Amino acid sequence: MSSECEFFNKIADNWDSTRAVDVGKIARLVAMIGLEPGFTVLDAGSGTGVLLPFLKEAVGPAGKITAVDFSANMLAKAEEKYGHLGDITFAVADIMEFVPEDGLFDAVLCFNFFPHIKDKQRFMTHMQSHLRQGGALVIMHDISRQQVNAIHKDSEAVKNDRLAPGETVGAWLTAAGYQVTQIVDTGDRYFIRAVKR
Hints:
Elements: H1 3-18, H2 23-33, E1 40-44, H3 52-59, E2 64-69, H4 72-82, E3 88-92, E4 105-111, H5 120-128, E5 131-141, H6 145-153, H7 166-175, E6 178-185, E7 190-196
Parallel strand pairs: 1-2, 1-4, 2-3, 4-5
Antiparallel strand pairs: 5-7, 6-7
């Protein structure tokens, strides 16, 4: 098990108490994705499932969500909190090794997770293979890039997990064959939406 996985397994119990969830802001970010009822969504690096109730509301009873995280403890918290919502599959896996059972997704979401991915180019290419044509890969944070990097630099386990400027990540996505439709890199949020051509 990687040291980073151990780190997240250890802090799983207290994770939800360490940072406030701005419900209004997350709801606005989710609205920007453009999810529709019946969509299938992959929540990559789901953690304790902060995004799940928002996604469930967006995709409705006909929609399906797959929550993936390499930390079994974090994902157990997510299932404990949101398993009752229905049609959510919880999969403990490294996102780079993950193979979905049910075919392609309409959207792959990366909420407060992207800095922790070691090989970002490979991740982008790998996620493309999980998206239907026209499906969206969304990388987002409910705080600014500067805040993300400030939080990470103070923790030994994640000190090198930095969030690059939106334009930089947008260029990586374009190089990986996506069409970037939106970049927001401001003082209070970070949102990049890219579509599989």
